[in-house]
Amino acid sequence: MTLAATFPALLLQHAAARPHAAAMREKVYGIWQTTDWAALALLVRQMACGLAAAGLHRGDHLVIVGENRPRLYAAMLAAQTLGAVPVPLYQDAAAAEYSFPINNAEVAFAIVEDQEQVDKMLELQATCPTLQHIWFDDPRGLRHYEEPGLLSLDALLVAGTRHDVAQPRFFADAVARVQPDDVAAMFFTSGTTGNPKGVVHTHHTLLDRATAGQRFDRLTDHEEVLAYMPLAWIGQNIFSYAQWLACGYVVNCPESSATVMIDLKEIGPTYYFAPPRIFEGLLTSVMIRMEDAGRIKRWLFRHFMAVARRVGPALMDARLGAGKTRALQTVSLADRLQYSLGNALIYGPLRNTLGFSRVRVAYTAGEAIGPDLFIFYRSIGINLKQLYGSTETAVFVCLQPDHEVKADTVGVPIDGVQIQVADNGEILVKSPGLLKEYYKNAAATAEVLSADGWYRTGDAGFLDATGHLKIIDRAKDVGRIVGGAADGAMFAPKYVENKLKFFPFIKEAVAFGDGRDKVCAFVNIDFEAVGNWAERRNLPYAGYTDLAGKKEVLALVQDCVEKVNADLAADERLAGSQISRFLVLHKELDADDGEMTRTRKVKRGTIADKYRVLVDALYGGKAEQFIETTVTFEDGRTGSVSATLPIVDAKTYPAFRSAA
């Protein structure tokens, strides 16, 4: 069957071919509710007609804010049916963060999930005068709201049904008018260095990359996907929207963010996607449970995990039918038997506990994942792979083939992609999935798109001898150590930070060193993991700030840092990036405080400026430094937290010199 070329046409194609097959599931009050393709098509028809009756026209923008919900997915399809442009925004953002996107796109219409999002939209109407129409999905708490222009989605569907009865050809004609080169969606970037930019994508760019990924991993309509990341993140949008409609598989929406782990185990997805921080969090939960286990269980876990790390990846190649002869030659019979026993006792139950017992393909992207973390998952039999892409490339640029998975690369260019490495090491990409433009920002568009169609990624890296792409760091972040024993050595902060974050006790890290004589770092402890560690040692604490300042916790973090230094010393190119001094921050880095993006990428420049006094103390040789910081609470109130932070000197090691 030839696939339709636009999202609304794909919806109708699935509804006609298999009307009663499951399209989406949503967990409501603990029970999974199924929406089939026919019901979804009817919902989109009613919603599109309702939006048309309300005045949404071709080229208009519709803001969508909320968790993954079937009716919000339908809202995207309804807008695309009319030739309008859905603009998903992060549901956990503060109201003020919506102001620029709404004003930039002159948004008059918004569909949101619940009372929290309604309150934000109403708060914005004073500064966003174009925003006149707001519909909500969940009516709880909104019974007595009487604001002009505020209605429920149920009211919109009633109006849409009336419009459909009056103009029965309207919907079909609207779908037919949508063309592949029409704008399909706009995604706003994180805005790490200024106002976010609206990345404009067409039906063609999104579907071309979605189908390229489908072919690469042989995806079918039998896949099960759990949609729990924000729709505003293009990674989630590609996996649970573009590929969903291209493949026709089932998208499952958790009841809430608090039930994701339970829902993950209930669904048992076959196709899974998450940024590294999710895999870091899952590993932390495993390590916490193992610390609480009995002595025999801890010994079994350590023993069989050592076996898994040694032979698991090679055996996975054999299981996937690639490199089987090589795997069986390199893995002894004794190790194969030990791995089989480990699979029965440790790996299988662990995969089931994590919700990955049925995963056929799992991807991580968004930022680099630590090699140790990556190898952990593959060693226990989870086919975790890395991909490379960005919002501007519609995600899929490089993917890892099943039989060529490497911890230190992000795969090979897939169908339609060309890659060049500029003289300064920057990766350049040419692909059918490139953005059309940055909305109302011709200068920024010209800065990243060359006249001959190459996209400047801003990432530094190279293609290895086997054609795999290796990313070092953001090009602007890669620097050099100046002065001291490591003078001239390369400094790649993200690489160092990822190695630190492999430890379950470390949640975030920010490394400094470019243009300086040594590397220093800020560390955020993982409050749950370290709290559990402290409780088992009868170490009392009053909260995050108190726990972070304990001398025992500093010693714990120091041990992690020095293990990273020993590992870095074995890499001649990065031995100069060893951490000489560090401190544990008195508060967690937070997007609400402007220290991270909504996808939890640290804003390195912002942090360096905000905590300049701490950076100066690290490099000034001080033993401690007082700091007071303003913090933003979940309800929008502000307060302050202060502490005197000890600064710790870490042991560094001579660089390992390979034999000539």
Helix content: 40-55%
- Strand tally: 29
Instruction: Find the CATH superfamily of one domain.
Output: ANL, N-terminal domain
Straight-line N-to-C gap: 58 Å
* Biggest beta-sheet profile: 5 strands, parallel
Q: How are the strands of the biggest sheet laid out side by side?
A: 4-3-5-6-7
Category by helix and strand content: alpha/beta
Brief description of this entry?
This protein has 22 helices and 29 strands.
Explain this structure.
- The strands form eight sheets. Strands 4-3-5-6-7 form a five-stranded parallel beta sheet, sandwiched between helices.
- Among the domains are: 7-200, ANL, N-terminal domain (Rossmann fold); 389-476, Luciferase, domain 3; 479-649, ANL, C-terminal domain (GMP Synthetase, Chain A, domain 3).
- The longest helix has 25 residues, at 295-319.
- It is built from 22 helices and 29 strands.
- Strand 24 (506-512) and strand 25 (519-525) form a beta hairpin.
- Helix 1 packs antiparallel against helix 2.
- It has 660 residues and is an alpha/beta fold.
Write the layout of secondary structure elements.
Layout (H helix, E strand, L loop, with lengths): L6 H11 L4 E7 L2 E6 H18 L6 E5 L4 H12 L3 E5 L5 H10 L4 E4 L2 H10 L8 E4 L13 E3 H14 L3 H8 L5 E6 L9 E5 H15 L6 E3 L7 H14 L2 E4 L6 H8 L3 E4 L1 H17 L2 H25 L4 H7 L2 H22 L6 E4 L6 H9 L4 E5 L9 E2 L12 E2 L4 E4 L4 E5 L6 E2 L3 H7 L6 E9 L5 E6 L4 E2 L9 E2 L1 H9 L4 E7 L6 E7 L1 H10 L7 H5 L2 H19 L9 E6 L19 H7 L1 H8 L4 E9 L5 E9 L1 E2 L11
Parallel strand pairs: 1-11, 3-4, 3-5, 5-6, 6-7, 10-11, 12-13, 13-14, 25-26
Antiparallel strand pairs: 1-2, 8-9, 9-19, 14-15, 15-16, 17-18, 18-20, 20-21, 22-23, 24-25, 26-29, 27-28
Helix pairs in contact: 1-2, 2-3, 2-6, 4-5, 8-9, 11-18, 12-13, 12-14, 12-15
